[in-house]
Amino acid sequence: MKNLFNFVLPLVFIVSCSMEETSSNSENTVEDRLSNIYYTEFMPCTSGPDYSTENLTKMIAEWQKLLTNENLQGVWGYAPAADTNSVPNTGWWEVQWASKELADQAWSEWVQNKEANEWNEKYASVLQCDGEARNGFNSVFPIASSQYSELPDSGYFYSEVHLCEFNDGSTQEEAIAFLSGFTEAVSNADYSDTSYHLGNYFYTDDTNGFLWANFTNSEASMNKANISFEESVRESMFPIFSEFASCGDVPDLYHGYTLYNAENKEFMPTFMSN
């Protein structure tokens, strides 16, 4: 395992409901939002022996002071909320950029940053991430996180992530085109007060699969969103989705927090107690 700081800190110059709202607002049309394709990286993380909400807060606060790169869109952290997740006992950092080229440049600059290395060593026992195992995605977010009410001021969100595969011959373009109709179907259902929004993440090195991530403001809101899907969305949209892709039956579940918001650089998450 590599220290989190070795790999997340390109944020100085640098993991999902995420979450993903830093560069667009609810007034944008669905077409506008689907035309904004971001480069996103996920890194697997595990807590260290000195992990606590107090130490994590200190770590993030000091890390935020190191961030200077204007190409960083946002950063989100995920902690597992179920024992059935596809990668057991693993959390994630999600880092969003405007492009892969800008991300690569940031990573390159970060490893030479003296203050970042010092911060890295200071918090090595709090949280560790495997930067060498980070995955790159092209991501789209058709619904603003504020569309169905604002997320909590704490920065918290709840997420379920479905691992999906394309049918033979199907492509990312079909999946993105589907999101327009899906978003309209959601707008005609009852997702009120859930903060429901979603992201599709397309692997840059594997054209056969993608992630469908749903985000809400709580587990209870996710349950409400799922009920609304079953009652008002599935019948019209699932047959269309099935023409080009399928997903696993059991999603991965996570508690998440916004760690950095490019549109509100003073934001600091308030973590729940262990």
Describe this structure in words.
With 274 residues, the protein is of the alpha+beta class. The chain has one domain (1-274): Alpha-Beta Plaits. Helices cover 31% and strands 27% of the residues. The protein contains 7 helices and 10 strands. It has helices at residues 4-8, 30-35, 53-66, 100-110, 114-122, 172-187, 219-242, and strands spanning 38-47, 72-80, 91-97, 127-129, 135-140, 156-166, 197-203, 209-216, 245-247, 252-261. It has an 8-stranded antiparallel beta barrel with strand order 1-3-2-10-6-8-7-5. Strand 7 (197-203) and strand 8 form a beta hairpin. Helix 6 crosses helix 7 (219-242). The longest helix is centred in the C-terminal third of the chain and has 24 residues, at 219-242.
Structural key phrases:
274 residues; alpha+beta; Alpha-Beta Plaits; 8-stranded antiparallel beta barrel; 31% helix; globular; disordered N terminus
Quick structural overview:
The chain is α+β, with helices and mostly antiparallel strands. The chain has 7 helices and 10 strands.
Write the layout of secondary structure elements.
Elements: H1 4-8, H2 30-35, E1 38-47, H3 53-66, E2 72-80, E3 91-97, H4 100-110, H5 114-122, E4 127-129, E5 135-140, E6 156-166, H6 172-187, E7 197-203, E8 209-216, H7 219-242, E9 245-247, E10 252-261
Antiparallel strand pairs: 1-3, 1-4, 1-5, 2-3, 2-10, 5-7, 6-8, 6-9, 6-10, 7-8
Helix pairs in contact: 6-7
Radius of gyration: 18 Å
Average pLDDT score: 89
Number of spatially distinct domains: 1
Report the CATH architecture: 2-Layer Sandwich
Low-confidence blocks of residues: 1-26
CATH fold descriptor: Alpha-Beta Plaits
Largest beta-sheet characterization: 8 strands, antiparallel, barrel
| Strand element count | 10
Quaternary status of these chains? single chain
Q: How much strand? A: 25-35%
Order of helices and strands: HHEHEEHHEEEHEEHEE
Helix content: 25-40%
> Gap between N and C termini, in Å?
23 Å
Count up the helices: 7
The CATH class = Alpha Beta
Q: Structural class of the secondary elements?
A: alpha+beta
Large-scale geometry = globular
Strand order of the largest sheet: 1-3-2-10-6-8-7-5
